[in-house]
């Protein structure tokens, strides 16, 4: 009987320890727009990509479970501020305008805005967009930095008309259909769109270089923990390896 009691107590202790080890602090929800390869995109029914793997690694390091909430890009900041998501990670650039609404993490990657044109386009460089009297029609994804920069640089200066689309794919389809003269978008999804659509190319000259970061509701104490984990995962090579997996370094 004593042996049986001891065995039962041992089993109870093992089960109790296993339960403690399996517990997490809760679930972190990442708001994103899954039409931005290779940072976030669908692979079948699953959302994958650089941002997804980075967020999962940070969440695990901090002891949280992790979920992804897909939405329109222009809804991400609102979702974060409304508490519907803990942070936004969507190839989002830190801008002065966005800093009025949210706080940003440390940067984890650098992005480049480029210009996609049809192969027979008379637009041969970014400078052509700024030519006096050119008045090109430019396609962008709504509220992205492609939208912000072209609005500030070109539309507000009376140099172009900006057509805004819910996602990058619709902007590219508008380009193929001749509804816009070019599309300004991040270099990595641009390469994917051009590879998937014949008759398009990326101009050699870049539009702008920018830094990507996660956005948080102002004052959210999670930001400090997130940054600490982010820096540790950069230092130990985890995040560089994730980026290299999707964007191999050119030799």
Structure write-up:
The chain is α/β, with parallel strands linked by helices and 251 residues long. The protein has 9 helices and 14 strands. It has helices spanning 2-22, 50-62, 76-81, 96-99, 145-155, 168-176, 187-196, 222-235, 238-246, and strands at residues 27-32, 35-36, 40-43, 46-48, 65-70, 87-88, 102-104, 109-118, 136-141, 160-165, 182-186, 200-202, 208-212, 215-217. The strands form 4 sheets. Strands 8, 9, 10, 11, 12 and 13 form a 6-stranded mixed sheet that branches. The protein has a 3-stranded parallel sheet with strand order 5-1-6. Helix 2 crosses helix 8 and helix 2 runs antiparallel to helix 9. The chain is globular and about 60 Å long. Mean pLDDT is 90; it is low at 4-12 and 14-22.
